[in-house]
Amino acid sequence: MKGHSGTGEMKDDITQAVELTSTWLSTAVADVEALVPADVLAKCHGICFLNFIKAGFIFAGTLGTGFVLTKLDKGTKNEHWSAPSAITSGAFGIGIQVGAEMGHSVFTLNTEHAKKAFYSNGKLKIGTDLEVAAGPMGRRLETSNDVNEIFSTPICSYTFSDGAIIGASLEGNVILQNPEVNKAMYGKELTAEQLLSGAEDDAHVKHVILMELYQELDKAMAI
User: Fold this and answer.
1) What's the predicted TM-score (pTM) here?
2) Are 119 and 69 in contact (CB under 8 A)?
3) Which residues neighbour 77 within 8 Å (Cβ) at sequence distance 6 or greater?
């Protein structure tokens, strides 16, 4: 699974996140619905990018790697993104799926509780520990009622393949922190809480690719 942070290279997952996020800014996107609305990005407390592969025949499994970002000083003029913390995700079940499917999932963390759930070094089961709903699509939401309804759910999920929204769901997947990948990225041991709470707010400054991701996300929020 070269290119996934589970191999110790979070930079590869960040590069894929930059490529995906940049498509949300393009007016040339064939399917305008295949976008995370600017309102959702602007109001969320954090965001998770996950690259995954689903494969199997009788026994089907999903394996993914990625990272989480949170918003620091949210709602102030100093609001900014945290350093990323690496995660891995997986699920196993019985089902028929011939071949393999690769894709990208994005979770918006809509509440403070959802954000802080990723501080833990334990495991999170999507749909059980945190309620999840399919996220709305398009450049903007229709009304303020839409915003309120969406942000009553801790997580909105989006799954993409080749830039288009697909119907795959990662509900039931278990998400684990990946301290080894964090150490490989930052050159020292840092916990998810240190990174996502801003206690190590300068941990990321030397990584140019991260600056690109922050810029793409900020532009996507301002559409």
Assistant:
1) 0.82
2) no
3) none
